[in-house]
Write a structure and sequence with these properties.
The structure is a single chain. About 55% of the residues lie in helices and about 0% in strands. By secondary structure, it is mainly α. The longest helix has 14 residues, at about 10-25.
């Protein structure tokens, strides 16, 4: 029996990004300046038109001062942890 992980909750990840940006009072331009990413990229990520690369999320985490694991932890919100079959 093969057990697959649940799909990541990408909406929760986008919402966490928006929350952290808003919490700091930053517009897209400010986050773009601090992260080195384009404003357009940030908008596309928050609106769900793209997911972004690991390098993109790494830059965002550093700009926001948020641990990457904490940011990515949002993808597991509302998802059941995997179970392991008995041997």
């Amino acid at each position: 029996m093969t057990i697959f992980p649940p799909d990541p909750n990408l909406q929760a990840l986008r919402m966490e990004l928006a929350r952290l940006r808003s919490e700091r009072g930053w517009a897209y331009d400010e986050l773009a300046r601090r992260s080195g990413l384009s404003r357009r990229t940030l908008i596309e990520i928050e609106q769900g038109r793209t997911v972004g690369t690991l390098t993109t999320w790494h830059a965002l985490a550093h700009a926001l001062g948020a641990p990457l694991d904490e940011l990515f932890g949002a993808m597991c919100n509302g998802r059941e942890p995997p179970t392991h079959p008995s041997s």
